[in-house]
Design goal:
single chain; transferase; PRTase_dom; Ade_phspho_trans; Adenine phosphoribosyltransferase; Rossmann fold; glycosyltransferase
């Protein structure tokens, strides 16, 4: 399946979570066996070029794609979790959201100093969470110079913000608007 075919499997839900938002719902994509497999194939092809030693996925949907990429490439997977979800000592970072703040954390022993880590999530919008993830992984000693997404919302500027922070951001497909 081509990226255009994959794009056709993503459902758009109008006015969610607020009026005027066009929510890009990947549940229809991951429920489609051939579409999901093709998505992973495309992402793995791109991920292999980064020469990463591990894959970090952002909770929650980044776990779906990041873990599949890591398994396919024989790499370890590092979950970037919401605050308070790890049962061990964690490194964390607070970051701003449009209407407040949030915190993400990683296992403090998950990364070897200088390890090249690929950051993965399902979608990049404003880039706040992805930027925080890259910063957190770097604070832990990782080299983070690539990020992969299934969907980019380029009008919101997240991929451009990542590139400005020294992270090459690539998405399989994009949707205009919000």
């Amino acid at each position: 399946m081509s990226p255009a075919d994959i794009k056709g499997l993503i459902r758009t839900v109008p006015d969610f979570p607020a009026a005027g938002i066009q929510f890009r719902d990947i549940t229809t994509l991951i429920a489609h066996g051939k579409g999901f497999a093709a998505t992973i194939d495309h992402l793995v092809e791109r991920a292999a070029k980064t020469r990463s030693g591990a894959v970090a996925g952002i909770e929650a949907r980044g776990f779906i794609f990041g873990a599949a990429i890591a398994a396919r490439l024989g790499l370890g997977f590092i979950p970037v979790r919401k605050a308070g979800k790890l049962p061990v000592e964690a490194l964390g970072i607070d970051y701003s959201l449009e209407y407040g703040s949030a915190r993400i954390e990683i296992d403090s022993g998950a990364i070897e100093q200088g390890e090249r880590v690929l950051l993965v999530d399902d979608l990049i919008a404003t880039g706040g969470t992805a930027l925080a993830g890259a910063k957190l992984l770097r604070q832990a000693g990782a080299v983070v110079d690539h990020a992969l997404f299934v969907i980019d919302l380029p009008d919101l500027g997240g991929a451009a913000a990542l590139r400005a922070a020294g992270v090459a951001a690539e998405a399989l497909i994009d949707f205009s608007g919000h």
